[in-house]
Amino acid sequence: MGGALAAGVLAASLYGGSPAGADPATLPTTAGEAVQRMIDLSRQSEQLNQQALNVQADLDTKLAVQRDADAKLSASTEVADNARNEVRKFQPMVDRTVIAAYQGARTNRLFAVLASNSPQQLLDQMSTLDVLSAKTSDQLKLYKSATAAATAAETTARTADDDARAAATKADQVRAELERKRADLSGAIAQVVSAWGTLSARDKTALAGSPFPPGFDRDSLLSGLVPGSGTSALAAGLTRIGDPYVWGATGPSQFDCSGLVQWAFKQVGKNVPRTSSQQAGYGTPVDKNDLQPGDVVFFYSDISHVGIYAGNGLMLHASTFGVPVAVAPMGSTPYHSARRY
């Protein structure tokens, strides 16, 4: 496709099918500008992809909290029910005691003295009163204890119910946000794929670039490989050179940026988080001047891109749509930070 025609068709795809409503000053006028516009659009879609992955991770966390809250609610409700049943066991005794007191029952020692006809009868009555009093006292103590336990259990159950409701509300909110992010990503992907289809074979080849920069020496880079190290993860990642970039993919034959990092380290026994922002909190920080092959490097202020350092200012990464997994210079991407796993 000719340069001007390619630019015009790409502009149409970038502006909803017709460039008429766009600012003419912003429309690509050459094939090179059209390719750059597609790169920019792909970059935006990569950001949306990482954002959607972050929201999904947040949702998974919220759902786990909700499950825990529901489990605590079920357990505390059962405890409260059992406590209420225990209280009910003592209710007849409490009722009898209250009725007896109301009707003026005489159960003290003075009444025993006044009502006894002989010393032996007095001793018998006093002994009986002591037994009844002690039994009633013990029963009342058990009743009070059961009542206190029931009250505490009901309070715990109410708290658990509140927690479960709050967790469910938060999960619903995050779920709604995830749907919005997915819709945004879906629209961005459609634009990128449409724009890609307008590029000439030459432009596509130029955009894909070379899998290795000139002078890259893989064997020297991986000499002295330590099993389980970052370098061994880099070695695993280098076996995926040429695999396509696909939003949300984690391998084994297609990847997004964080998916490639996660896959590479999984091959050496390390369970790395899924998203680039999560990966930026894993391991230990490394100064840019102390980078070693196998360190994980992050880019952009929102940490929406990640790769594995390959030495000499190079990184292995899954770049963007239309660009296969490759080793490329880091300098063209705004550096953020690095970690060592």
Helices and strands in order, then pairings?
Blueprint: H1 3-14, H2 31-102, H3 109-115, H4 119-198, H5 201-208, H6 218-221, H7 230-238, H8 257-266, H9 276-279, E1 284-285, E2 296-299, E3 305-311, E4 314-317, E5 326-329, E6 335-340
Helix pairs in contact: 1-2, 1-4, 2-4, 3-4, 7-8
Walk me through this protein's architecture:
- This protein has two domains: 45-198; 209-340, endopeptidase fold (from Nostoc punctiforme) (Alpha-Beta Complex).
- 60% of the residues lie in helices and 8% in strands.
- The protein has helices at 3-14, 31-102, 109-115, 119-198, 201-208, 218-221, 230-238, 257-266, 276-279, and strands spanning 284-285, 296-299, 305-311, 314-317, 326-329, 335-340.
- It has a six-stranded antiparallel sheet.
- A hairpin with a 2-residue loop joins strand 3 (305-311) and strand 4.
- The longest helix is centred in the middle third of the chain and has 80 residues, at 119-198.
- The radius of gyration is 37 Å and the shape is elongated.
- The model is unreliable at 1-27, 101-107 and 110-115 (pLDDT under 50).
